[in-house]
Amino acid sequence: MISWEQLAGRECGLYSLPRFAADSGLDLAAVPYTGRVLLESLLRAGEPERAALLGERLARGADPDLEMAFRPARVLVQDYTGIPLLVDLAALRSRVARPGRVNPALPVDVVVDHSVQADWAGRPDALALNEALELERNQERYAFLKWARHAFDGLRVIPPGRGIVHQVNLEQLATVVATGPDGLLSPDTVIGTDSHTTMVNGLGVLGWGVGGLEAEALMLGLAQPIRVPPVVGVRLTGAVRPGTSPTDVVLTLTRRLREENVRGVLLEFTGPGVDQLSAPDRCTVANMAPEYGAMAAFFPVDGETLRYLRQTGRRERDVALVEAYCAHQRLLREGDGPRFGRTIEFDLGGVGPSLAGPSRPDQRISLSELPGSFAELSPRPPRGTPLVAEGDIVIASITSCTSTSNPKAMLAAGLVARRAVERGLTVPGHVKTSLSPGSRAVTEYLRNAGLLADLETLGFHVAGYGCMTCNGGSGPLNEGVGEAVDREGLAVCAVLSGNRNFESRVHAQVRAGYLASPALVVALALVGHVRVDLDREPLGHDRDGVPVLLRDLWPDAAELAALEARFITPELFAAGPGPEAGWEAIGAQQGEVFDWDEASTYIRNPVYVDAAATGALRGARALLALGDDISTDHISPVGAIAADSPAGRYLSERGVRDFNSFGSRRGNHEVMARGTFGNPRLRNHLLDDGSGPGDSGGATLHVPSGERLPVFEAAERYARTGTPLIVLAGRSYGMGSSRDWAAKGPWVLGVRAVLAESFERIHRANLCAMGILPLLLPAGRSWASLGLTGHEEFDLALDGMRDSGEVGVRAGAVAFTARAEVQSAGEWDVLLAGGSLPYLLGRLDKLEKEEQR
């Protein structure tokens, strides 16, 4: 029932939560705020009975255990995921009689931020050079985007050079309260194709990351089927100590929450400590929800949210409406908070300076533990050349997206740089330094505060506005460094202010990665290596030979607060940049249906749209046998394309000289399939030789012949004999980014099932969306403890699995029952149809046939 209310001086239509609570006898104050947003979604979908059931369970702290169809207010994508998504929609259009039926049913924003790379860094013209090279390399992709912008309704493209998707979302796109096409108000909710879409949870906007395949279904009018997970409270107490950064808080929280096993739950922050965190601090915490495994990390709307909206240039009338709507709907944080079935206590006062590494974001360490953490990874002495040695930092990047949206963190980096310059400290020549702000506003306030020049003196020139180093777009190492690393077999390091440091993610030649605050990135760049205890040892010596310690350079809280109050103004955000000439000059096709170019190495008509449902899996072979914590970086190709790799050879044979990156080639299944499972740090136990599972470098064993082959070539050989494939894995399979190609690539290779001990949320859903069956091994057992080697032939009994959720597996003399990790009726429909695209195509064909009758 729609209610009409006077809010902020205007009459507004909405679905009233207080009225619903009164009618159903629900204690709304006991329901977590996250749950209240879901209740409103159910009311808007015309499901008051289901809303009453969900509300009653949440109010008493019970597990919701309820399936619902979630329809967000909008969809948000970046270009690495957005272009493949639009390629899929273009493919659907080319296969139906009425192309216009394939059209977004809700607003979609594409932010072009992942394609720029730090080819040039440490020089004043780095930004101009990188942006020019970006446009040159990506002409074909951007022309496709421009076609899509005109071909599809409700699709908005934010051109390159504006900022990273999450910061653009915070500063420009998020409204906190949405106005629908019918004029009705609702909470602003968002589904994104980047796993860190959760960053906007810090503003009280509920949203999470999904695969592009799920986003496609949403865009075509289907709701996202979810089984509402438990809502877990994180009760914050205390206050952050002076000298502790927002990054320190989130790295410490990430380790703690991983230990608390919050995989797949909805986290909600509560308690008096919430008031101690600014909105950017909250967004920093919410950004890393995928790193601690949560579906979302929600901070309810409060006065600090409203202050941030004003600070970032939102109109006063819009902010007033947000406040009035949230107050009416009981979405404005108040009192002691709601009831949770489980609450995790976290004392902000217990957080100290932190880093995370050397290979996972939950590996939180103190400053004094840094040398030991690297020694555990690579215990060899620091041998090398005069240019670079073992344990040297070869990349130091203040890069999107965890901290670059946080003025406190960025200003602190500028002040550390200023004091370092004043003392005469410099950065060693083997360290590649770069600054990739999350938006142009960051550059402006650093410049206005006089800090940009200090950062530039140390080599931290602006290299671009996008997800650069943190996504593998780090470009080449400084001259001579890469050659020395390869020649001497050195284990070298990167330090960055991003959120992911998985092996080889930042750069193929860089073994270890450390996450740190922007200020610590500057400090470690000055040292030039990780063999240092930053608590006790100096960063270097000043002009007079006096040791300079980290505490000598560190700014205090009052100094940072004064700079923020003076230089972070609404005017920085209110006026966006004008049109960019290079982008505007790119031409594009016209028309409803895209004209595919069979010679293109960027945009190809995908083969998986016409996939058939998975039949019996008998005589299957294991393509790979993997261990724990396999990330989507291990599975999906990322970063540079090596010339001697299957993908590099494919491009060379077609006359391509500038390979660009795997991310830019996601619209071409031929390139991506050749790079799948090609990570040089992937450990494939099929290749164990008795001396331990070394890095397999994208190779596997073709079991029948006993030959060691590149994964792609082995898959081709299996395909020629009609052999279906599976993958064996351990715990947390698919952790990390929401990469569609971590599911699409295996499908193209012929993989039809993955047997693992546990799956990360987004990747599990992506497997279902590609028609790949995610199967859980028996509880407490690994594939090795079951007696498997991966050399067996596998028979999987799929009959009746939808009803029972169970699949019988026989592999040689080993037999066991696996459980299908499929979590809703909607997922079963998609999986059994062969994937979401065949499912959607089937629905569209059915509609057209019904219309013809």
Automatic annotation (TrEMBL):
It comes from Streptantibioticus silvisoli. The keyword Cytoplasm does not apply. Residues 654-778 form the Aconitase A/isopropylmalate dehydratase small subunit swivel domain. Pfam families: Aconitase, Aconitase_C. Residues 67-528 form the Aconitase/3-isopropylmalate dehydratase large subunit alpha/beta/alpha domain. Its EC number is 4.2.1.3. Catalyzes the isomerization of citrate to isocitrate via cis-aconitate. Belongs to the aconitase/IPM isomerase family. This is Aconitate hydratase. It catalyses: citrate = D-threo-isocitrate. It is an enzyme of class 4 (lyase). The keyword Heme does not apply. Its cofactor is [4Fe-4S] cluster. GO terms for molecular function: aconitate hydratase activity. The gene is acnA. Keywords: 4Fe-4S, Iron, Iron-sulfur, Lyase, Metal-binding.
